[in-house]
Amino acid sequence: MTELVRYIQFPLFFDIELLKNDASKILSDNWVKHYNTNDYSGDWDSIALMSQGGKSATIYALPSNNDEVVFTEILDSCPYFKEVINQFEFQKTSVRLLRLSVGAEIKPHKDYCLGYEDGSFRIHIPIITNSEVEFILDNTRLIMKEGECWYINANFTHSVANRGTKDRIHLVIDGIRNEWTDELFFKNAKKEAFEKKRVQNSNEEKEKIIQELKKLNTPVAERLISDLLNDMD
Known about the structure:
Elements: E1 7-10, H1 16-25, E2 32-33, E3 40-41, E4 44-52, E5 69-71, H2 79-86, E6 92-100, E7 105-109, E8 120-128, E9 133-137, E10 140-142, E11 149-152, E12 158-162, E13 168-176, H3 179-186, H4 203-216, H5 219-231
Antiparallel strand pairs: 1-11, 2-4, 3-7, 4-5, 4-6, 6-13, 7-12, 8-11, 8-13, 9-10, 9-12
Helix pairs in contact: 4-5
C-alpha cells in the first residue's frame, strides 16, 4: 500500500529580497494573536493577506460561510505578495503571514482535512527563518529555507520551535484542489500517494480537534464537529 505523502518541496523559488521587503512594510501593523492559544507558548501571531470580507485581522483558516475570500488592504502596499499569490491558480480559502517569535513553540498537534487527499491543502513559503527553527512533521525535521515552496500535510502530527535569534515568518496559503494543482502535485509525487485513506484518530485526539474547532464558532467548524462526533467510538 502506497504511503500518503507527508510533504513536498516544489521546484518553485521566490525572490527572497522582495518577500522580505514586503514583509518589512507591515511588521508594525496589527498582527493578531493566533486563536489556538492552548497549542503554543510564547508569541505566535498572524495577519491575513486574503480573507472573507477582506480584513487583515480575519486570520481564521476555516471560512465561516460561503462568502468569497478576497485580498485584504495589506496587499495595497505589498505588490510582490500579490504577485506570488496570483501564481497559484486555485481557489484560496485562507492566505496569511504567520510569525513565530524568538523562543516560541507550537506544540505537537494535528489539523483536520488539510492533506491533499482531502481535496484541500496547505502551502508554506518561508520569508524569514533561521537554522535553529525546528519544524517536525511526523517525526521528521524539515529544513525549509527562505524563498522555497513546500506542501505540508497538516493531518500528521507536527510541531515548531524557534530556537534562533530572529522571528520566523512564513507565507501560508490554504486552497482547494483542482486540475492545475493536480498537475503540480503529480509532477512531484505519485498520484496514488494522494488516494484518501481512513486515518484512525483516537477519541482523545478527536476530542482535542473538536475543542479547537469550537473556538472558531463557524458553520464550517460545526459541520466538522458533527462529523467527528459521529465517527467517535
